[in-house]
Amino acid sequence: GAVVSQHPSRVICKSGTSVKIECRSLDFQATTMFWYRQFPKQSLMLMATSNEGSKATYEQGVEKDKFLINHASLTLSTLTVTSAHPEDSSFYICSARLMSGSSYNEQFFGPGTRLTVL
Amino acid sequence: AQSVSQHNHHVILSEAASLELGCNYSYGGTVNLFWYVQYPGQHLQLLLKYFSGDPLVKGIKGFEAEFIKSKFSFNLRKPSVQWSDTAEYFCAVGRNTGFQKLVFGTGTRLLVSP
Fold this sequence. Notes:
- Helices cover 0% and strands 52% of the residues of chain A.
- By secondary structure, chain A is mostly beta strands.
- In chain A, the strands form two sheets. In chain A, strands 2, 4, 5, 6, 9, 10 and 11 form a seven-stranded mixed beta sheet that branches. In chain A, strands 1-3-8-7 form a four-stranded antiparallel beta sheet, with no helix packed on it.
- Chain B is globular, with a radius of gyration of 14 Å.
């Protein structure tokens, strides 16, 4: 159980276009999902916290108009990279938090989406 | 702000060798500590976690980690590695409040040669 999927796994797009990445919790409901960005040989950097039914909370330095997040249901969050540029090329990973009733709720990670902007 | 540092970026070991990966964090409050593993081509998986209690925690696949509060450390260990342990290992720190966001270390790439 507790599987998180991402679609697409890879995407190549032209500069100036927008790209949407989906994150789904397949067998549980997630009121909170997280979006991370990972540069080569670097750590996962939290970009934003996605909350079902409300606005996302962005980390400092992350442009909310550039990275649009929508958490329309308890199993789906989307990240749209608007007007993508080559510097947006990266590995984007989402996670979903499983509410277990305990004080800590584990995050389960998706397989990631490799975005390449030409 | 919280930060996590992993001292070893690349580690190469032979099978049956012992493993210790360092992790230090900076945060003065109560934290939860995690080690995640990412096998080639796969997603991040939780290896083990520490919330409170016994500072020596055991995880899956024979891994364990020791929380030393005075040193702000949470080092990962395995007495005898296998070829299948080849992966990238991430240390992460989170707070048990709010959204329970995680801060990750830079990762350590482990290569185990048969």
